Amino acid sequence: MTIIKIEDLVFEYRRDDESPPVKAIGGVNIDIEEGSFTAVIGRNGSGKSTLAKNINALLLPSGGAVYVDGFRTSDEGALWEVRRRAGMVFQNPDNQIVSAIIEDDVAFGPENIGVESDEIRRRVTDALRSVDMYEERKKSPHMLSGGQKQRVAIAGVIAMRPKCIIFDEPTAMLDPGGRREVMDILLRLHRDGITIVLITHFMDEAVKADRIVIMDEGEVVLDGSPAEIFSRPDRIRALHLDVPLAVDLCDRLRRRGYDVPPGIVGIEEMVAYLCR
Questions:
Q1: Among 82, 86, 91, 102, which one is least packed by beta carbons within 10 Å?
Q2: What DSSP state is assigned to residue 77?
Q3: Of the candidates 220, 272, 224, 218, which has an alpha carbon nearest to the alpha carbon of residue 250?
């Protein structure tokens, strides 16, 4: 079942009334299936974050349409239904945390959509446990590390019980330990059936997805499974993107005459091949 449908999406930024608009997205079509994990990658300015904000109705299309679980994001009356179904986690958790106590922050979203008090308490407990932050619930967010703050921000979205969560470069500001923590949670949410859309520039994160969409200059230029996408490393590099370490190593070995099988994109697969 399709949960996100993007039809001929165009988005233009208007700097002022006199300057011509800047087209950030030009005619994008993407269908995302419920329960799937899609990574969207592309160099800076490719339109990937603009795409994410159009899914969550933070931005509304200049042309075309975006549907979330059947609700059109540009319909004013559908705004809250869209945001109940598609939560969003941003790059900087400080921009998403609004309360002085962690458990109050996680409760903020459900309170705003009118969830009853007993249910809010259950949701806050479940959400904090799911990101391993329940023991810290009485602390102030300013006492936390960057990775812990991002886990609290994720808990705040989980407490809204969305069907889909859009992560807009959630690990960009974190150290390697924080990145691992956030990715572990993201993968756990996917296993629990939540649809994941991950905007990232880390290739080791993208290879964990079911599907990778590559954007360039506001258009989709490649779309497929990680194995399909990274089977053409020269094409990826031509888009000014890196390839995963395992893909780069396989490419180097093949150029030296080694018969490396296709489809290796992750470190674990590379290690398994080398051990054989």
A1: 91
A2: G
A3: 272
pTM of the shown model: 0.92
- Helix H or strand E segment including 243: none
Contacts of 68 (CB under 8 A, 6+ apart): 3, 4, 55, 57, 81, 82, 85, 86, 164
**Which pLDDT tens digit goes with each residue over 176-209?**
988 999 999 999 999 999 999 999 999 999 999 9
| Helices within the chain (DSSP H only) | 48-55, 79-85, 102-112, 117-130, 146-158, 176-191, 203-206, 226-229, 233-238, 245-255, 267-275
CA dist list (Å): 191 to 134, 226, 266: 21, 18, 19
| Tens digit of each residue's pLDDT (9 = 90 or more) over 108-161 | 999 988 899 999 999 999 999 999 999 999 999 999 999 999 999 999 999 999
The tokens for 134 are: 């329940």
Amino acid making up residue 150: Q
Architecture of domain 2-227: 3-Layer(aba) Sandwich (3.40)
Q: What angle do CA 228, 234, 237 make, to 5 degrees?
A: 100
Look-up of token digits 């890196």: 242
Alpha-carbon torsion angle 245, 250, 256, 261, nearest 10:
180
